[in-house]
Amino acid sequence: MTNDIPSLSIPATLISGPDSIELLNSECFCLSLDTKALRQALESEIGQPGLFDLIQQRCPYLFATRPVFVSHANMARMEKVVHAIESVVALPAYREEILGDSQHIARHDPGGAKGVFFGYDFHVTEGSFGLIEINTNAGGAMLNAVLARAHQACCPAIEKMVGAQKKSSALEDDIVAMFRQEWSLSGHDRALHSIAIVDENPTQQYLYPEFLLFQQLFQRHGLEVVIADPSEFTLHDGVLKHGNMNIDLVYNRLTDFSLSEPDSATLREAYLQNAIVLTPNPQAHALFADKRNLVLLSDPIRLQALGVPKATQDILLAAIPHTEIVLPENEERLWHERRRLFFKPFAGFGGRAAYRGDKLTKRIWQEILAGGYIAQALVIPGSRVISDLEPEQVLKFDLRNYTYDDKVQWVAARLYQGQTTNFRTLGGGFAPVYEGPIDPSEIICSTSPESVVQHETRLFLIEENTVMPLEHDLYLALVRGKSTAPEFAGRRFILVDWYLRLVCCQPETVVNETCSWLVFDAEGRLDFNAAHEIDVETAPTEAHREQLKELLFGAVAVINTK
């Protein structure tokens, strides 16, 4: 994670019309990740001490350095697609068809629970649009609540856009209310007391830091919380227990969607006995997240046969890329058409075993032909330039809509390189999403090149292990003999002069550095003769440089020097 210095170089006359969002994603750098604010959010506001360091060590590319811009029209269109799919899933005919072909556990009545944190993932540009997949245990919601606290804007227009977004504290309240709603919908009159966050070997999971954030959130709202492996539970007299702790609700982060693994046996039995509220549950996965459902949802004949209204059909067919199951009878055709296709396993997650057709080898193709794959028409993802200094640094992005009970709670982006999202890309990871367009008259920092790029001198004093700023006016007064500094009487300093490139009034690059000695006499006047007589190295040490960066940029960062 780095603290990139924000900049903007877009003529205001261009921030309008249908291409404005694409332009913002390619040329706007008014927002950047502030690592100091991120650490504060992770360790003081909603997290716990050490969490920032844990993320840096385990998953340093979890948070993107730049946000993503999306048009109002595409944000609204994604929401319409969510509503359309939810309305189809609610149809008795759809549920009967899907559950009839699913495992037995998917037909078990979950007792009213809807399922928390569905993730509708889209590829969106101003020229293309497609729902890529649906997940029923989408990770990252709490991480995005943190991220919303840690992006800083330098341009008033962008600051206004940021301020208009839903506050992260509201999302946190919605999360707690959602889990309590799951408990209430399952027919319980008493209050929810305890939650188990469950995943296989949770401390080794890539998103384990998010489990800790959830634990902190729930505990702040008076709930007992444990993070556990599914094998750690026991079932006694219809009560699921973790040690001596009775478990009311299980927040299910397992990718064992049908609870068929041996370690999941106790959870499976507790679920089938209605001893717990399990959310999300196997039925939700079968109805929403099995990739074969996209075959039905992109087939006009099957949608019509289910009685889906024409208006809903139109929304789905325009948004869901054509999808079909890979079978022996279409093998030859799909191979020839592979360059415009994406192949995914039925129960895939996290991009695992998913392949772009143009990257396929014969060996992988044989694995796909063995069964259990869909072929989906390729939809090009959006792109985001993450550095104005290196415009070739372009990352792809998808958009994740976190939903609950047919309502979109939050929209986040994931920036990446490669075939699928991977959280292994420098500058990539979860990114906040901001709606456009922006009124060009409000982008006052981009109305002319002169107001975008400026230069300025900043002065610092170094004495042993201490670094402090020196006001430029005071320095001039001292040099001209018009002022004294009694507090510096009899002391010797290294004077560091940084000539900076500013973008939107914010320091971006150290263009030049000069160092010299400043010696003060017993009355606090500059003693130029004494300074000239010093014949030792004046360059700051690395430790000094870290302090200089902290003073100038607000957090330790990698600063370009020329």
Description:
- This protein has 562 residues and is α+β, with helices and mostly antiparallel strands.
- It has two domains: 7-102 and 124-321 and 379-442, no CATH class; 448-553, no CATH class.
- 32% of the residues lie in helices and 26% in strands.
- Strands 4, 5, 6, 19, 20, 21 and 22 form a seven-stranded mixed β-sheet that branches. The chain has a four-stranded parallel β-sheet with strand order 9-8-13-14, covered by helices on one side. The chain has a four-stranded antiparallel β-sheet with strand order 15-18-16-17.
- A hairpin with a 2-residue loop joins strand 11 (239-242) and strand 12 (245-246).
- The longest helix is centred in the N-terminal third of the chain and has 18 residues, at 72-89.
- It is elongated and about 95 Å long.
- Mean pLDDT is 85; it is low at 1-18, 440-452 and 555-562.
